[in-house]
Structures are given as structure tokens and as C-alpha cells.
Specification:
With about 160 residues, the chain is mainly alpha-helical. It has helices at about 1-35, 40-60, 75-95, 115-150. It is found in: Membrane.
Amino acid sequence: MPVVSRLVSIVLRIAEIAFGAVVAGIIGWFLHKFSDLDVWPEPRWIYTEVVAGISILFGIIWLIPFSSSFFTWPLDFLISMAWFAAFGVQVDANKKLNCGSIWHWGSITDDSYCGRWKAAQAFSFLSAIIWIVSALVGIWFTFRVRRHTTDRHGRAYRV
């Protein structure tokens, strides 16, 4: 069973890196395009860029196949919460862009401002979900390992 959890973890880490890169690229484009306007919420977008950068960095580091990467689940959970906050920031900015409902992602392939913004929202939300699933896999692995290294009285022993 450790092989299955390792493969799931690798797939999740690759998705975390890819989703973070997509969001970093899109939000970076917006920052570059509208850097001289005061009406755009740049600090919030910079927050999203930082979360994407941290996600890419930790995703790459934790992609290295060591069992200790399963014990990083508290950080996976924190990064997931940071992604949910970034998604909330983007939803708040969506009101100023007049791009319609936040859950209508049908136009993410359009080459328009709203299409790009919707793509950033979609990938931010998906990244939050992937990070929390990664944390759940880490929790499952951690407690499975702990269960196999204690006896019925809770005393630790060597395997």
C-alpha cells in the first residue's frame, strides 16, 4: 500500500506545481498589464503571486520521493488555506471586473480579461482542493505508519 500512497502523492504534487504555475502566470500578466493603474487591487494580487510561488517551491521540494514528505501535512493544510484566501481575494476583485458569476467558468479559454480572470479563479480553487487532498493523504499515511509502529498498549516498538 505504500506504493499507492506514494503514487497518489506524486500526482498531487505535480498538480500543485502545475496549478500554481498557471495562477502565477495569469496573475503576473495582470500585474504587468495594469501596473500603472490605481484602481486595481495590486497588493491582493501580489499575495496571490506569493502563494503561487510558495506552492511551486514546496511542491517541487516535496516531490522528492522520501517518506518524510508525508509528514508535511500540516503545511499542506496551511497552504490550502492560503489558496482559499487567494481565491477569496480573486472573488472580491471579480466584482470590480464585472465578469459575471464566480462559478461560471465556461469562458476560461477565451482570450479576454474575464476569461483569464476566470481561469485564475478556477485554478486557485482547484489548487486549494488539491493541497487539502494532499494534506488528507499525509494524515492517512502518518496515522497508518503510527498504527503499525505501536503495540496494543500504545507503546512504540521497532518494525
